[in-house]
Design a protein that fits this description.
transmembrane helix; globular; Fatty_acid_hydroxylase; binds zinc ion; lipid metabolism; transmembrane; mainly alpha; Fatty acid hydroxylase
Amino acid sequence: MGIWDTLYSEIIRFFGLSGIIEIVKKGDYSSLATLGGIQKLIYPIIPLLLLLEIIRAAFYKRFKIEDYSMPFLVFVLNRFISRFISIAAVAFCIGLFERFAIFKTTFTWYWLIYGYIVWEFSHFIYHYLAHKVRILWCLHSTHHAPQHMNLFVNFAHFFLEAPYADVIRTSICILMGVNPGLLFFIMFIDGFWGSFIHLGENGLKNGRLGFLNKIILTPSHHRVHHAKNPLYMDTNFCNLLNIWDKVFKTYQDERTDIKIEYGITRQMNPHNVLDAYFGEIVCLAKDVYKAPGLKNKILYCLMPPGWSHTGAHKTAKLAREEFLTEEGEKQPLAEPPPIQQEQFS
Ligand SMILES: [Zn+2]
Ligand SMILES: [Zn+2]
């Protein structure tokens, strides 16, 4: 295949257009009314929104190449490394755990609700561990390294993260009886929404989506998740239904008086893709090397980021508690100012 053919097929693949092209070539538009047809129509929405986000940013002279370059490079790197690992991991877990399922479900609307609640639970577990176990944070921090929010951040992941996330999520769902067909359907909705919530301020200034902000997890909630402000760190782990954040008390609304600062707290070069990819691993390796005794070395890998064998911890949990205590002392009865009306600008 020549370079132009490769480039063409990469662009078609990136924009998810192959399904639509196939339908147009065959002229069989009736398939658009099927579930598969609808999926083919939905696939290109996120890449097209990303394009729109960039065009809008350029139009308002807010486009900065460095906001997009790092997540883009991570995307390119992943594209070549982790093409099929994740699909294989899902298939493996289904084969391994299906026989141990507590019961069998079918593809009906009520099992869809059950399946989605279980899926969100499994996503919460994966995502919570990704933030609270330092060795897993080494993988997840790549996704949090970008210092601006845009749809490309969705593609910035360490290549091993998707297979490990899928192993945890698939195993829990299959054991809880979610049938594979239902699971793939849920994964499809989750994949779409999980991408959409990365829509940055260039695409949608206020990401609260009006009344939806009270019911589901919106881009505004996920912006909070990507923030390094003490109040916002390690909150909003869910993806679409934020029930588990509310159950486990990790829910945090965006506040107008606290402007989101994206990124991670470690000093890093935000435009260096290698730093975003391997920086946390290097830091962990240094801490493990310096730590006295085997027990401390293991604890550095398993305890939350910021844990120290000296007891001088600097974890996200402590930073948040400190912030809330300080704020409580300063203004004991103050209510956070209400957020302004939704503006699609
Ligand atoms: Zn995260
Ligand atoms: Zn994210």
